[in-house]
Write a structure and sequence with these properties.
Rossmann fold, alpha/beta, 12 helices, 32% helix, Hypothetical Protein Yjia, Chain: A,domain 2, 2 domains, seven-stranded antiparallel beta sheet, seven-stranded parallel beta sheet
């Protein structure tokens, strides 16, 4: 298994249609090249039985919620999948789909993937795909921090059960999702018409899903959105319940360097610390391999993905940040750090970045 296997994370609130969407994908496309990890919060796992007729490479994690207690089990399961594929000569294994519980925060799962060098030798992070119930989704975004967190960090949002919702509620939900995560690609799924294309692992499809969609949201160079949800009354506290997740995005007009990317990332991490949830970038570098996708989760920066070609017609580099209490002015100023030519032995402040470039 020389090629890295893509890990796609499928999340979404309780009853939002994750299992239905995944089952439809497996029935349409088969399990050739795909392994599935299902996480259930209860003591008795049932979801794996849904897939038994269409998949024989389904792994169940039922010892707790992935984002709380079983990240070690996730690691062991991924390594098991790698070993089984190698022993069976399954060179066609292309992706692992990780289905979380309905109460999961995707970020610790992404940390578990990005922060493990052994895993990163064999796997690469693909997309976060979040399902949102067309009927209940708007209310859940307002009342459940888990639902808000899932939607806010997703690359793909799938509105499910659209055949059960009227035109007016759907319009409201679409508007809310645009506030929560203006950079995600949104698709819709009705009974018998599941949006299974969200599981694409093709390089260009992945890069387009990660970043190109926000082009339509950036009008004057900078886009900022803010959305708040009430603190959930339910148990299952993950340490953070969100009262104001914001997103910032911009096309950039500086020439990025690798020293600059490092300086910019360190600048962000030291300024925002735990308030930084996720960052993504599509950069045109002055390098032998110029087309690059970068992304970080929390304080962890993922190895860059090099693209064979630029994925859309607009040649400009672009960035997206998602976090708490984002300052659009500060973030726009921070972009200058991307052009720093010489590596720094320590993280720089914004004032020091400006001094370096003055």
């Amino acid at each position: 298994m020389d090629r890295k296997v893509t890990c796609n994370v499928l999340t979404g609130f309780l009853g939002s249609g994750k299992t239905t969407l995944l089952n439809a994908f497996l029935r349409q496309h088969g399990t050739g090249g795909t392994a599935v990890i299902v996480n259930e919060f209860g003591a008795i796992g049932l979801d794996q039985f849904v897939f038994q007729e269409v998949a024989d490479n389904v792994y169940l994690l039922d010892s707790g919620c992935l984002c709380c207690t079983v990240t070690h089990s996730l690691r062991e399961t991924l390594l098991q999948i790698k070993d089984v594929a190698a022993q069976a000569g399954q060179a066609d294994l292309r992706q692992v789909i990780i289905e979380t519980t309905g109460l999961a925060d995707p970020l610790p799962i992404l940390h578990a993937l990005l922060g493990d060098r052994v895993l990163m030798d064999h796997f690469q992070l693909g997309q976060v795909i979040a399902t949102v119930d067309a009927v209940q989704g708007a209310a859940q975004l307002h009342t459940h921090g888990e639902s808000l967190r899932q939607a806010s960090v997703a690359d793909q949002l799938v509105i499910t059960k659209t055949d059960l919702a009227g035109a007016a509620p759907l319009k409201v939900l679409r508007g809310l999702l645009k506030q929560v995560n203006p950079h995600a690609q949104v698709s819709e799924s009705a009974a018998g018409q599941a949006a299974t294309s969200v599981f694409a692992v093709d390089e260009v499809c992945r890069s387009m899903a990660l970043l190109s969609s926000q082009q339509r949201h950036i009008e004057s160079g900078v886009a900022v959105s803010q959305f708040s949800a009430a603190q959930p009354e339910e148990a299952h506290d993950h340490g953070i319940h969100d009262h104001g997740i914001g997103s910032w995005s911009a096309f950039i007009d500086v020439q990025p360097t690798w020293a600059g990317v490092s300086a910019w990332w360190n600048l962000l991490v030291h300024h925002y610390e735990d308030r930084l949830l996720r960052c993504k970038g599509l950069l045109r570098m002055d390098d032998a391999r110029p087309f690059v996708l970068i992304q970080g989760v929390g304080k962890v920066f993922h190895s860059p993905t090099f693209l064979a070609r630029w994925p859309d017609a607009d040649p400009r580099s672009r960035l997206v940040c998602i976090g708490l209490d984002l300052d659009a002015g500060w973030l726009q100023d921070s972009v200058r750090a991307l052009s720093i030519a010489e590596p720094s032995s320590r993280p720089l402040t914004l004032d020091e970045v400006n001094d370096c470039l003055s």
